[in-house]
Amino acid sequence: MESKTGIPRIAMEWPKMFEKLLASIPDKEQLKGYAAILTFTVLVAGTFPLGAAAISNIEPAALVAARLLLATVVFAVFLIIRHRNTAVLKPPPKFWRFLIFGGLLGFHFFSQFTALETSDPVSVGFIFTLVPLFSGIFAWLIVGQRLNIREIGGILIAATGTALLIFDGKLSNLFELNLGKGEILFLWGVAAYGLYSALVKYLSQGEAVDQFAFWTTVGAALIVIPLSLQSVSQVDWWGLAEADWLTIGYLAIVTTVITFMLTQYALIRISAAKVTAMGYLVPLFVVLFEVASGVTQVNPYVAPASLLTVSGLVIMLLVKQQD
Q: Domain range holding 163?
């Protein structure tokens, strides 16, 4: 179609279209947030095979308690060395906030490992894809963060790709899910994580990322450890294999200390729904790790499923943040 001047309309309007596209690209701070949560997904991808291996020897509650205790100690030493004083360990104002954060995260961890112990990994993986839904709902109710149609579309596309990975390329397997007690418990754990994601920005008072993450870890430890004493007492800690201790170390340092800081950093810069939606990449990274280690082979559905997941997340990334 041409204009009155004989120039194709698209040629006349492309500068406006290009300008609109540039305006939709996230700013520098948001891109930092995406980079942080992308790193988070890579690190968390290692949690599932390690956690599944560890729970064969350690009760879920005891595993979470050990993880949080070790993470708290490592975190405290890290803060003292970094800031060169012990004042950073002084409890912040309104410490009850971190008890809330810690309680929600502690319950999420406990439900995850309990579900891995008693449930089908496919069911657990599918329930995990519901995190962005809960995050979006809670963020809307608590802080008024709303998702536009492109963000919702991006989430749905990414979720479809992840579901294809989880269900071996057959979405019809969704109807064969058997939700038992473990899956229902993890569903509540996923809701707890969604609520935590929404509350971070609402209750944050400008604390430094490392200190915010540390006190969140302390809050989780204070809630979880007293409730796990019976399980902790039943574990033969001295009799654990080196692999079990390495797993606990990885969970404590990498997927607690480091990922807590990455998550707090991202949640201050991008919406809770976007942060949790990046978790859709976790199954993809798990598959890639398994292929790289020779545990499994690349199946035909992996490429289209991965393309859907990445495409959906790119659509979300190109939507300008609306607070």
A: 29-317
